[in-house]
């Protein structure tokens, strides 16, 4: 341990979150979140979280060090200033590997590496018959995952294989080996996978109970189980489910201001560099536009795939602060690299380029940034469907990065190539020429069609190799769905789905969640309270997490909109929209009176109750 970082000690009944006296505020926040995850996921919420910081009592501090086997605060080393946190995190991520332990046809236990981070949960299903055993090397520890379909011999030999593996790697003897059983994985183990979906109708660890069984034995009311909203999801999945309601409030010609997160503060980006992003950073962008003479705002916070958790958290915090300065009138949109909506791309008019690595050194020259390859070779993937939504992303300069559906710009010390895949669109070809001028200026461009590459081209990629040549299918669209979120007298969340919905179903005293099929909107009524806002947004995130389709939090945009400030993409989902309805309707009385809403010749709404006590 050291005084500059935070640590979590799991003592089963108690989970301690130790805050080093010199640790950063964001580190403390993430430590508390991680401690809560251990409590909820590993101990079914039955443990108690105790924070060991400047306010902790002497007894709590003594119990913490007793759990460590002895010691005192004076024994903790000072902050280690020799290693940069971000550098350590990047090096730690790079060594995470997953190995398959299996019994071959001759009865011999074998191992083979099957992947590096980012890992997919589906990799744990690579056994021929059911699941086998797997070894996860995190760099700081080793996990042995025991699948339910593994043989007795595999279960017995897996720990022995782990010990041999650590010895071969030269790991110190104090480094831990932890045995993990399928369907009882701890929160720390699951965190090493890109996404993790729990089995349906399972809460916590141990024996699995259905929702019907839970409701029969639950005497007290609990929060609503969001996963039940997807019970009919597969019946709603259709290849052509209607129009896609993309978020497109205007033509992207509004005013923009962009800041990069640096040392947890907003650092303005020079206008000449607008459209240039770095995957190792997070950004906040304020977009201002007008509709019918009224000024509107959108706050995008873009998070690079390699940016740190601290930077991502800081971008969200600054977005909320900026929204407060705008009196809550802005639409907040969280974006993850690679999943930008069409409106965001349209703002840069085909001039969006995402570089590998960290922040640039002023952008005075496109080559003048902290992560420029010393060998002078770079590869950029160009993707899009039209002039406005096309973007370029720097990828590793190897043949495996190519894709027959797109165009690529390859810069070598001697030449710059524009590689045109057989499935690339005309827009991607045109964008490739623009990107080449942006990332490799003042050079003659050599256009290369797929299948006509020269030896020099392949040499720039380290040699000829296999690459993807099958078009990636778009994920299916869903019918729009509207959910009404309320808080019960006991303080628990209740969710009701509204069918055949219209604008009149938006209750201005509560919070509504709208699933457009692409984005998720959290609509905040003027009369809603802070508890409703907090729980409804958490419900929207859990709604995406438990979605049985390929949706993830990274690939799905969640927007927070306030009553009276709805964007056109939101209003277009409703059969008819009256922007003056809020002024025409009388202010509702207190929620407890449940006054009926004003409905103009609408058919009777059919509501499906999803409260916990009715399941």
- What's the number of extended β-strand segments? 26
Biggest beta sheet summary:
11 strands, mixed
Q: Number of helical runs?
A: 14
Percentage of helical residues?
A: 10-25%
Average pLDDT: 76
**What's the overall geometry?**
globular
Going by helix content, strand content and strand pairing, the class is alpha+beta
Taking pLDDT < 50 over at least 5 consecutive residues as the criterion, the unreliable ranges are 200-220, 231-245, 360-372, 471-477, 586-615
3D structure, described in words:
- The chain is α+β, with helices and mostly antiparallel strands.
- Helix content is 22%, strand content 24%.
- The strands form four sheets. It has an eleven-stranded mixed β-sheet, with helices on one face. A seven-stranded mixed β-sheet has the order 11-15-17-16-18-19-20, covered by helices on one side.
- A hairpin with a 2-residue loop joins strand 9 and strand 10 (265-268).
- The model is unreliable at 200-220, 231-245, 360-372, 471-477 and 586-615 (pLDDT under 50).
Summarize the structure.
Helices cover 22% and strands 24% of the residues.
Task: List its traits.
615 residues; alpha+beta; 11-stranded mixed beta sheet; 7-stranded mixed beta sheet; 22% helix; 24% strand; disordered C terminus
SSE layout and pairing:
Layout: E1 6-10, E2 14-19, H1 25-42, E3 48-52, H2 58-67, H3 85-94, E4 97-103, E5 109-116, E6 133-137, E7 142-146, H4 152-169, E8 177-181, H5 187-190, H6 211-217, H7 233-236, E9 255-262, E10 265-268, E11 276-278, E12 282-291, E13 294-303, H8 309-325, E14 330-336, H9 342-347, E15 352-355, E16 378-383, E17 391-395, E18 407-411, E19 416-420, H10 426-439, E20 445-449, H11 455-460, E21 481-487, E22 493-498, E23 511-515, E24 520-524, H12 530-545, E25 558-562, H13 568-571, H14 581-584, E26 607-609
Parallel strand pairs: 2-3, 7-8, 11-15, 13-14, 15-17, 19-20, 24-25
Antiparallel strand pairs: 1-2, 4-5, 4-6, 6-7, 9-10, 9-12, 12-13, 14-25, 16-17, 16-18, 18-19, 21-22, 21-23, 22-26, 23-24
């Amino acid at each position: 341990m050291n005084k500059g970082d935070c640590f979590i000690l799991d003592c089963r009944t108690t989970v301690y979150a130790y805050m080093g006296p010199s640790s950063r505020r964001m580190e403390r926040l993430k430590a508390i979140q991680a401690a809560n995850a251990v409590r909820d996921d590993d101990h079914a919420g039955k443990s108690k979280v105790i924070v060991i910081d400047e306010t902790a009592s002497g007894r709590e501090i003594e119990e913490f060090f007793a759990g460590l086997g002895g010691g005192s605060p004076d024994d903790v080393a000072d902050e280690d200033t020799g290693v940069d946190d971000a550098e350590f995190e990047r090096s730690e991520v790079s060594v995470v590997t997953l190995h398959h332990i299996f019994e071959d046809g001759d009865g011999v236990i074998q191992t083979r590496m099957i992947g590096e981070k980012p890992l997919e949960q589906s990799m744990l299903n690579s056994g021929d018959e059911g699941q086998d055993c797997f070894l996860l090397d995190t760099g700081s520890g080793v996990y042995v995952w025991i699948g339910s379909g593994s043989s007795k011999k595999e279960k017995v030999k897996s720990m022995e294989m782990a010990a041999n593996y650590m010895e071969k790697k030269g790991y110190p003897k104090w480094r831990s080996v932890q045995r993990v059983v399928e369907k009882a994985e701890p929160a720390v183990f699951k965190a090493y996978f890109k996404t993790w979906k729990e089995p349906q109708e399972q809460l916590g660890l141990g024996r699995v109970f259905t929702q019907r069984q839970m409701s029969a034995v639950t005497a007290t009311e609990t929060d609503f189980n969001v996963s039940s909203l997807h019970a009919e999801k597969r019946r709603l999945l259709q290849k052509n489910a209607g129009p896609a309601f993309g978020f497109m409030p205007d033509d992207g010609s509004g005013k923009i201001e962009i800041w990069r997160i640096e040392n947890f503060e907003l650092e303005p980006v020079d206008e000449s560099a607008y459209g240039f992003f770095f995957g190792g950073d997070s950004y906040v962008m304020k977009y201002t536009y007008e509709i019918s003479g009224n000024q509107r705002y959108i706050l995008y916070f873009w998070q690079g795939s390699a940016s740190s958790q601290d930077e991502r958290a800081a971008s969200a915090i600054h977005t909320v602060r900026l929204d407060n300065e705008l009196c809550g009138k802005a639409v907040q949109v969280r974006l993850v690299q690679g999943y930008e909506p069409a409106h965001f791309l349209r703002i840069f008019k085909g001039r969006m380029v995402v570089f590998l690595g960290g922040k640039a050194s002023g952008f005075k020259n496109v080559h003048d940034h902290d992560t420029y390859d010393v060998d002078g070779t770079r590869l950029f993937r160009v993707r899009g469907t039209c002039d406005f939504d096309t973007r370029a992303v720097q990828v590793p300069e190897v043949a495996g990065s190519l894709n027959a559906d797109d165009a690529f710009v390859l810069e070598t010390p001697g030449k710059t190539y524009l590689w045109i895949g057989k499935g690339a669109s005309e827009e991607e070809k045109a964008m490739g020429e623009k990107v080449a001028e942006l990332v490799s200026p003042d050079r003659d461009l050599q256009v290369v069609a797929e299948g006509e590459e020269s030896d020099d081209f392949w040499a720039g990629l380290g040699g000829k190799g296999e690459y993807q040549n099958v078009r990636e299918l778009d994920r299916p669209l869903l019918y729009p769905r509207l959910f009404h979120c309320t808080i019960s007298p006991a303080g628990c969340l209740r969710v009701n789905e509204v069918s055949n919905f219209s604008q009149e179903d938006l209750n201005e005293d509560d919070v509504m969640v709208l699933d457009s099929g692409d984005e998720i909107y959290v609509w905040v009524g003027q009369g809603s309270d802070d508890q409703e806002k907090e729980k409804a947004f958490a419900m929207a995130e859990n709604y995406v997490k438990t979605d049985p389709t390929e949706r993830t939090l990274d690939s799905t945009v969640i927007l927070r909109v306030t009553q009276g400030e709805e964007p056109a993409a939101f209003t277009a989902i409703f059969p008819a929209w009256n922007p003056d309805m809020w002024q025409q309707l009388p202010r509702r009385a207190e929620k407890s009176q449940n006054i009926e809403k004003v409905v103009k010749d609408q058919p009777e709404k059919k509501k499906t109750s999803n409260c916990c006590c009715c399941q």
